[in-house]
Backbone:
């Protein structure tokens, strides 16, 4: 009786050539270098767009039409950008000096009012802290109606030039008074006074 044939073992894989081994050694590092380079490029592109793009691409907002005869809702204009507000405007939806708001009649419920604007006259940028303090003082100098419901629930808000906008000629300080909570149906400015815009 003949012996059974030997069990067939796993076939040996052909030996890798030195060339294919060298090729495999540099593929992984090159791939990671490529991925890293793409990541850095994306960060640089995003940063350039974030810090330089918006200023260059910024176009003026279209002029908002004011309703000279508001209806029962008291709405004069919707979605108004801050640069189109006028001293004395009573505002709904005010959250900060740079956001869009709705202008309403002052007898309509509102949570803020633009109380005046000022123009800084000097040529040299006074510094951010100095300009902030001066802007606050200017806004607090606006005469208010003594019968208006002012108390600690109100806060001053203002926009002022940044160092960057100062370099382009911006000198405007815009003043607002806003309720921390709730609404009113009165103007904060004296009825006989012309709103300050200097």
Residues:
């Amino acid at each position: 009786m003949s012996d059974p044939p030997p069990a067939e073992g796993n076939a040996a894989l052909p030996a890798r050539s030195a060339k294919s081994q060298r090729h495999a050694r540099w593929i992984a590092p090159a791939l990671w270098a490529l991925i890293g380079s793409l990541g850095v490029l994306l960060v640089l592109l995003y940063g350039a767009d974030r810090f330089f793009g918006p200023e260059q691409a910024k176009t003026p907002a279209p002029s908002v039409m004011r309703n000279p005869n508001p209806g029962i809702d008291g709405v004069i204009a919707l979605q108004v950008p801050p640069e189109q507000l006028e001293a004395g405007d009573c505002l709904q939806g005010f959250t900060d000096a740079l956001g869009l708001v709705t202008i309403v009649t002052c007898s309509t419920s509102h949570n803020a009012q633009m109380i005046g604007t000022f123009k800084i006259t000097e040529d040299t940028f006074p510094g951010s802290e100095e300009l902030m303090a001066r802007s606050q003082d200017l806004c607090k100098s606006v005469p208010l109606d003594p019968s208006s419901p002012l108390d600690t629930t109100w806060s001053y808000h203002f926009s002022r030039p940044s160092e960057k906008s100062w370099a382009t000629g911006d000198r405007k300080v815009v003043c607002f008074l806003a309720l921390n909570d709730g609404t009113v149906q009165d103007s904060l400015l004296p009825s006989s006074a012309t709103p300050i815009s200097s």
About this structure: The helical segments are 18-51, 53-57, 128-140, 163-167.
